[in-house]
Specification:
Length: about 180
């Protein structure tokens, strides 16, 4: 049986991106993210993070630095959820089928983990995230400034004004949409 998944962008969705994240201590999760991921995980979604990390090509960060950041992130989420995989694209200037807005990371993860993209979601804060999700065949959620192409815009479901990103409200809306049968 194929699985349903949620693909989350990292910077601006999971963590604050006011400053570059070049070391584990730079990764500051938004308030409520752990609980939101737990809710999605307990609802039966396979969770993934798909992130453009062009700073590698530009020389700001190494693959090893990024591995340390992601290991720290996974450690911080222990007891809340299991992230199946964190995929990243290190390219910036050169074309890559993996760099969003291209859907390569989502397609690769879907094949590897038997994910039904028609039952899955891409959550991101950039137009490139929404484009990648659409190209992969996912439904999409836009964090921050609305995107008319997105199935859900965070601004329309946000319940808390005290948090920068209301991922909990987003996850609740995803679960509600799926339970009501709004499937592609």
């Amino acid at each position: 049986m194929r699985h349903k998944g949620i693909f989350f962008d990292r910077d601006g969705v999971i963590n604050d991106n006011k400053r570059p994240v070049n070391k584990p201590k730079d990764l500051i999760l938004y308030e409520g993210v752990k609980e939101a991921l737990k809710k999605a995980y307990e609802a039966g979604y396979d969770l993934f993070i798909v992130t453009n990390q062009g700073g590698i090509e530009l020389g700001h960060i190494t693959h090893e630095d990024l591995k340390n950041i992601h290991d720290s992130l996974k450690e911080e989420l222990v007891g809340y959820c299991n992230i199946r995989e964190i995929a990243y694209c290190p390219d910036f200037k050169k074309f890559s089928h993996r760099r969003k807005p291209e859907p390569g990371m989502l397609l690769e993860l879907a094949e590897k983990y038997d994910i039904d993209l028609g039952l899955s979601w891409m959550v991101g804060d950039m137009e490139t995230d929404i484009t990648a999700g659409i190209r992969a065949g996912c439904r999409t959620v836009k964090i921050g400034k609305p995107d008319e192409r997105a199935d859900i815009n965070e601004m329309n479901v946000k319940k808390s004004t005290s948090v920068k990103v209301d991922l909990k409200a987003v996850v609740e809306e995803i679960i509600k949409n799926d339970s009501q049968g709004f499937l592609n």
